[in-house]
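Entry 12.
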Amino acid sequence: VQLQASGGGLVQPGDSLRVSCAVSGRTSETNAGTYGMGWFRQTPGKEREFVASINWSGGITYYADAVKGRFTISRDNAKNGVNLQMNSLKAEDTAVYYCVAGRWSSRWDPPLRADYWGQGTQVTVSS
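Predicted 3D structure (tokens):
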């Protein structure tokens, strides 16, 4: 599975931005109802943190508390990938955003295990 992220950039606080991820390749898990995709982010000196995920078969979404109500993850069937719509951006959202894919289970918190990583895309929120 190869993941290609795009759409990062520099925006001002309160602006919106969408990052996208295109997927190529497949694993047996994608047809098993236990596959999901999502986004993590990382800032210098900090560990990568979970942002959002979506279950591929049912479209069940899950968000980190820090972005709930502002970010929306959705499937992009044309790209076999996902989009992350980010609204009301804050300076603390500044990070490198990584597209991920892997196993998904509603019993986990967060529900996505990132088995595959794409390259990151920089999102900078600054006035």
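Annotation: The CA atoms of residues 4 and 87 lie 22 Å apart. The beta strands are 2-6, 9-11, 17-24, 35-42, 49-55, 61-63, 71-76, 81-86, 95-104, 112-125.
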